[in-house]
């Protein structure tokens, strides 16, 4: 008997469709082990929550330290979760509820819930496992027994024990599944989103949603408990804010009148400042009708923060400490690196450089002696290792396509002497070092930097895929500061951040004469090439605000209430918004923000579950006084 | 000099426009002193947050214990708030920022911020207070000095000290104010909402917003830290859910296709259950186009909770403990009182009885011996003290109007013997006691109870205003359980709660034969006559769900995705939604939910600040393929 059991065990383990990761990783908001010495510890009630303990090696400590797993059974009719049974439970009568992950030989049943997996064993002829399809929801009563030593599964947290089934009740049966829950044959995203209620059972999604919840809770604790912030909920049904993204409109019963869904709580938070709520934050739902841009959602969440009587340094320091204490991955100790927009552009050709790899421009303008006094002229070289050899035709074509988009000249390594002459070429190679090849961009200063910036990213992918670029695994946060206040738009000046951004005090004298040279008090937080947040010190003076609106061709009448708020005693203030979808996806190593959103829309703004948007009834159209036109 | 100062002090105190409440109550989320022995204490990091300490008497303890006020200065250029200076700060150089609340005789300036008030004194001829209008935002540098003993103001928390001004900088001037910030001449709500950015500076609003933030944070801590819940954000742009309130529609760029703004995350939370996220909650923004109902907002916030493998008792217990630990006012110790819908109706004539006063029906059906077997017949008596005397013509008219709405007979005390005859009248008076007068309702059981229920509320107001009804000051929570599953609607059966509510297992056999007799597993939480929450155990079996949809005349095709989620292994589950606007307004003793919402809409759904909803551009209409019609 014993030997038969042993055989069954081994078969069971062998064919068990659960990968190791799947078994141990259910509740782990962190994949890599991180040195935890300098990390702050967030104390939860009676339990110590230290994100650094969340490594695989420490999983047993983790379960006890991070979550009081017993409390996950409160208010339910289970006595234990599927993840918590250990040798100390042997002899206990338990009630478990969960999904049938796997069953084998009518004897072994692997039961799963959000907290883990446990093997249950039939010892009773009345129970027939063969009738129970996978993913059936069952309630099992039984007793915990120790597995024989040679059948212990070290890869499972519960692998030392099993539950001998006394009774099994089917709580809900399964008619058919859209796909199996096997990590090694994960279906395509479209199918997974269409049946998200099944997809959510994958350990990855379980983990991601928990990381999101914990990270945002950590942020709230930092802001409310440590620094006296007040979370204030502001409306989403409002009037249109001029000068921003396209806003969804919401028809009302008042004929011809529409709300706009807010693209951010910007106006409200500034009015709160005027109202004396001097330390505000909100985990705010925002809406932008920008479905054409990839990896964007029509609705998204931002951590929106604003405070009075502060300056750029105050806000940046706050966010650094907030992230350092709440992020579930290791971050460098504050202060984070800071870089002006100008420096970012002339070094990386982008306002959101990825600092996980080292691939910088060399400014070679000094070589072009006849252009030294031309402020609009720029010359940049991008050196890269010669080892990569000659670029393939495919890459060269990509570079050519990219160059077409910008009014500047791009010269590849092999054409350098031909196009610039021997002398210039030699000077350039001197500057970048002999072991390097180079791509050069010449022309309008900004455009040549931007163009070479795009090429830099292509080149980085190429070098990475050939293991010729060292890439840091950590998050590399970076503040980009001193953005320009205005950009040249199609119809005059446009705002670079938004119309409420304060000009840099040192540049105030240029506003009328050379507006494009005015820097602003705006800043972006960049992580590994992603813009994860942005903000500014705001204009609190109503005359200045009105002046800026006029420059931007925005009718001040549309913002009368807002200008009034500034006129009635509004304190100086500033703030920031962090994009939580992106931030959490970085914390989860998720490929897309859709992997950290429970029910995301697909690329074209459709809900894959219900098919929304849908047509509406004639009655609704009548009520809202609208009709559909071509 | 000294005597002149004294005189000025006294004048200043006398005319100071700040009421005592205004001075001491800025951050007090609790007005009454409550015995704190049995109240649970929520530990914030390093500080003990005990809502029971928040009484006036204990305000000094409060400020130290509840908030680490120093931390409110982090990331700002002030060194202290206006509320924190005490004799121990004497001699310190401080920087304060705030609003000019009051100034007097060019010598005294009362500075206000969100944390309190401090008196500042000019000792320098260069500073001219007479040029500074009220509500100007200033930065003051100076040193803390002790007030002379006879000038101490015990009514101010900072009344023992003052700040001698070294320098004063105007940070933002004031052009004109829509109204003054004087509690004793508070303007009408319409004007206050129109200039909410000024109105928010009143201590009442400052307090309410803080109570709201703290209460919701307490709830999160209870759910996440103590009981392993996961906060999951779900979409608000979705498809229409049949069988509920009117939902706002949102046109999209896809011609003729609209999102609906969710009226609750109901479908999503149930799909999360199917997805194995077994302990979910969300502080969820919800939308209902019901502007015609008073004290409703087109968007509102609910604490939305759902968990798997639970039952009615599990959910009710959870909510009781949640509220007991997070509410900032004293609540009775759980378990709260529970009452069936049937009992509530036959005792109070409503499904949300106010238990703060004792005014109950007496069932007098047994007196009508010929009707004993008529199940549809009901007879209720509402006894009230004779002391009130004869009801005035005005009240009698109100009662008559109310009676008109229901198909039943209402008999006033004075008409009892005339209309029912001496014998019946005597029997009734025997039942209710001689010292009482009575109003009787006869007829259809439900309608007579409902009608008498309305009359009960009128009578209660009358008795209260004459001090003839003892009213408890506490919150009296009550669970009303076992609501009917269906109601008789205009076009057949309608749902009493929503289409996803589980029938009571004991009544399953009646679903086809006598559906109106089927009780459900739905429950409401009532506080002092307000419905503050409601929920149910849900249907998890897809066949039963389909059957219920058919009974309700809802096309199951519109919920195909949802039915599929039940088919794919959905566990048994249930949940609740608490209306946070109402709950917080009870905690704040606020008259209206608008007093606990930063930027509420007015009765007709308009935003008083911006005037939204507004007309939209032709370009927007074209983009969304809509036109406006009559």
From TrEMBL, chains A, B:
Q: Which Gene3D superfamilies match?
A: Bira Bifunctional Protein, Domain 2 (3.30.930.10), GAD-like domain (3.30.1360.30), Nucleic acid-binding proteins (2.40.50.140)
Can the keyword Cell membrane be found in this entry's annotation? Answer: no
Q: Which Pfam family, any one, appears in the UniProt record?
A: tRNA_anti-codon
- Superkingdom: Eukaryota
Q: Name one GO molecular function term.
A: nucleic acid binding
Instruction: Give all residue intervals belonging to the Aminoacyl-transfer RNA synthetases class-II family profile domain.
Output: 209-600
A Gene Ontology biological process in which this protein takes part is: aspartyl-tRNA aminoacylation
Record's Gene Ontology CC terms? mitochondrion
Q: Which UniProt keywords apply?
A: Aminoacyl-tRNA synthetase, ATP-binding, Ligase, Nucleotide-binding, Protein biosynthesis
Q: Which family does it belong to?
A: Belongs to the class-II aminoacyl-tRNA synthetase family. Type 1 subfamily.
Q: Which NCBIfam families match?
A: aspS_bact, PRK00476.1
Q: What is this protein called?
A: Aspartate--tRNA ligase, mitochondrial
Gene designation = LOC113495187
């Amino acid at each position: 008997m014993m030997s038969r059991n042993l055989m069954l065990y081994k078969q069971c383990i062998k064919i068990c469709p659960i990968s190791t990761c799947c078994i141990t990783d259910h509740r782990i908001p962190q994949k890599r082990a991180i040195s935890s010495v300098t990390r702050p510890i967030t104390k939860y009630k009676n339990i110590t929550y230290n994100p650094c303990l969340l490594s695989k090696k420490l999983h047993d400590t983790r379960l006890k330290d991070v979550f009081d797993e017993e409390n996950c059974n409160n208010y339910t009719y289970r006595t234990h979760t599927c993840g918590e049974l250990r040798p100390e439970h042997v002899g206990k009568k338990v009630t478990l509820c969960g999904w049938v992950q796997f069953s084998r030989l009518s004897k072994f049943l692997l039961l799963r819930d959000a907290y883990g997996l446990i093997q249950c064993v039939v010892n009773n002829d009345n129970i027939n496992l063969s009738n129970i399809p996978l993913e059936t929801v069952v309630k099992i009563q039984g007793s915990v027994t120790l597995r024989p030593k040679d059948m212990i599964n070290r890869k499972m947290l519960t692998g030392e024990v099993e539950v001998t089934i006394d009774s099994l009740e089917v709580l809900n049966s399964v008619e058919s599944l859209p796909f199996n829950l096997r990590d090694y044959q994960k279906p395509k995203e479209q199918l997974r989103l269409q049946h998200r209620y099944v997809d959510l059972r994958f350990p990855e999604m379980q983990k991601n949603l928990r990381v999101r919840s914990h990270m945002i809770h950590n942020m709230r604790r930092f802001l409310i408990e440590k620094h006296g912030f007040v979370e204030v909920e502001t409306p989403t049904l409002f009037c249109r804010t001029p000068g921003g993204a396209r806003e969804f409109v919401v028809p009302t019963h008042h004929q011809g009148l529409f709300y706009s869904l807010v693209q951010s709580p910007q106006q409200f938070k500034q009015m709160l400042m005027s109202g004396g709520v001097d330390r505000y934050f909100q985990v705010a739902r925002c809406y932008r009708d920008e479905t054409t841009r990839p990896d964007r959602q029509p609705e998204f969440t931002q951590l929106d923060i604003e405070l009075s009587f502060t300056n750029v340094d105050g806000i940046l320091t706050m966010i650094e400490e907030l992230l350092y204490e709440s992020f579930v991955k290791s971050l460098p100790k504050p202060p984070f690196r800071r870089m002006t927009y100008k420096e970012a552009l002339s070094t990386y050709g982008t306002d959101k450089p990825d600092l996980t790899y080292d691939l910088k421009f060399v400014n070679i303008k000094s070589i072009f002696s006849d252009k030294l006094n031309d402020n609009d002229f720029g010359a940049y070289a991008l050196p890269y290792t010669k080892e990569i050899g000659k670029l393939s035709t495919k890459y060269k074509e990509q570079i050519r396509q990219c160059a077409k988009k910008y009014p500047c000249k791009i010269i590849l390594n092999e054409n350098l002497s031909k196009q610039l002459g021997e002398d210039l070429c030699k000077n350039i190679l001197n500057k970048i070092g002999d072991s390097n090849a180079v791509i050069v961009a010449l022309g309008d200063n900004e455009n040549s930097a931007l163009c070479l910036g795009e090429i830099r990213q292509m080149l980085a992918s190429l070098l990475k895929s050939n293991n010729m670029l060292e890439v840091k695994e950590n998050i590399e946060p970076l503040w980009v500061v001193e953005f320009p206040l205005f950009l040249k738009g199609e119809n005059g000046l446009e705002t670079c951040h938004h119309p409420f951004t304060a000009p840099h005090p040192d540049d105030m004298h240029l506003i009328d004469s050379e507006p494009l040279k005015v820097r602003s008090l705006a800043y972006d937080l960049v992580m590994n090439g992603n813009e994860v947040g942005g903000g500014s010190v705001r204009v609190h003076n109503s005359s200045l605000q009105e002046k800026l609106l006029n420059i931007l061709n925005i009718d001040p009448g549309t913002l009368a209430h807002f200008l009034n708020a500034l006129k009635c005693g509004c304190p100086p203030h500033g703030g920031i918004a962090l994009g939580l979808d992106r931030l959490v996806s970085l914390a989860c190593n998720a490929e897309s923000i859709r992997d950290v959103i429970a029910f995301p829309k697909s690329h074209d703004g459709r809900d894959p579950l219900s098919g929304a948007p849908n047509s509406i009834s004639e009655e609704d159209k009548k009520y809202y006084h609208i009709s559909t036109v071509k």
